[in-house]
Design goal:
alpha/beta; 10 helices; about 40% helix; about 15% strand
Length: about 270
């Protein structure tokens, strides 16, 4: 069984990779804005959503996930699609480019650009707290998801405007996060820094966007990303948190379309 995914729209292929503990529906808020211009392929990462469990077998889990994503592209016959990702998905998108399998890469608060080990510890603590809180509140999830205040309890750590999330999205995300517990633990235990080389001069344009209100991976990490990827294009996301798709769907969609427009002649 391969990775679970869904396909929407028409045009140049754009593969979307979600963050740790999330699911492919993380991109729902921007799908209608992307589909007229791109064939959008939203994927559940290994150990997440409806995809099979993550089987690292003692290997670095992020590297294993990157290999599975690259294998998934091969299964779909996608030699060098546009690839975009949020958080962990951003790191995986960059690793896909480093392997020569992406036409362009667009990332939203990509993981792996830690300023200090304290930031790693903080991110782990946030996710651990979210797991414990979600498990304790599981019977109350439907009721919490129905109110803006309840959605703030569930998602304030990663979303700047939880009131803009739909109740269905909030409840589904919370259940998916609990379901991805094993994969989340494996990934957080590793938390590698991104050090791969990306052949930007050879035609792999990279866009790195960062939420100005990202509390999980703060915007200070964009400075580290700029040092390691000096040829990348950097874009601020005002008013957005770590998972910005519901915070400002229009802005995020424009960033994704702009980032995947290079060298394919597409217009929007």
């Amino acid at each position: 069984m391969g990775l679970a995914y869904e396909r929407h729209g028409s045009g140049p292929p754009l593969v979307l990779l979600h963050g740790v503990g999330h699911r492919r529906q993380a991109w729902n808020a921007v799908l209608d804005l992307l589909a007229p211009h791109r064939t959008v392929i939203a994927v559940d990462l290994p150990g997440h959503g409806e995809s099979p469990p993550l089987k690292a077998d003692g290997q670095p889990p992020v590297r294993v996930m990157a290999e599975e994503v690259i294998g998934f592209l091969g299964e779909l016959g996608l030699e060098r699609p546009h690839v975009a990702g949020n958080s962990l998905g951003g790191a995986l998108a960059l690793l896909t480019a480093a392997a020569g399998r992406a036409a362009t890469v667009t990332t939203l608060s990509p993981a792996g650009f830690w300023v200090s080990r304290r930031q790693v510890s903080y991110a782990r603590a946030v996710f651990t707290s979210m797991q414990l809180t979600g498990a304790a509140l599981r019977p109350l999830l439907p009721a919490l998801a129905r109110t803006a205040a309840g959605r703030a309890v569930l998602d304030a750590a990663i979303v700047a405007r939880p009131g803009k999330m739909s109740p269905e999205q909030a409840e589904g995300d919370a259940l998916a996060f609990l379901g991805a517990r094993d994969a989340v633990h494996a990934i957080l235990a590793d938390s590698p820094s991104f050090t791969a080389d990306i052949p930007i001069p050879d035609g792999v344009p990279v866009t790195i966007a960062w939420g100005a209100r990202d509390r999980l991976l703060p915007p200070s990490q964009a400075r580290v990303a700029r040092q390691r990827l000096p040829l990348a294009r950097f874009v601020p996301l005002p008013g957005c948190g770590h998972v910005p798709m519901t915070d400002d769907p229009g802005l995020v969609a424009r960033v994704l379309l702009d980032g995947s427009a290079h060298f394919d002649g597409s217009a929007h």
